[in-house]
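tool=predict chain=A
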Amino acid sequence: MPHYKELPEILKKWTDAVASGDIDAIVSHYLPNARLKGTIWNEWVGHAGVKPTGGSIDGYFKALYTGKEDVHVSYQAVDVIDYGIYLVDYTFHWTDPKTGEPGALEANRTFVCR
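tool=predict ok
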């Protein structure tokens, strides 16, 4: 479990991974027993071999990138929910390669730190 002082570095590395489009790099930021309830899928997903109710974390991010380019993240807020629990509000941004139109999807992520 990460230490709360590592949160800024963790967010930067995850943000850089999202901007790179490297699905493996993104997924590496999730613990082996992680669960993700994604914004684009209204179901829980986990890693291969973990029994979530839906698909996989890498499948979730592959779906996020499908039909999009220049995917990146901007942050709106990092809120302390309780000692060691942080809620991060952010937005995925992208460009539709067919139309050149921008797109966006608001999301959030919870971090549990020691």
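The CA atoms of residues 14 and 28 lie 9 Å apart. The first strand starts at residue 35 and ends at 37.
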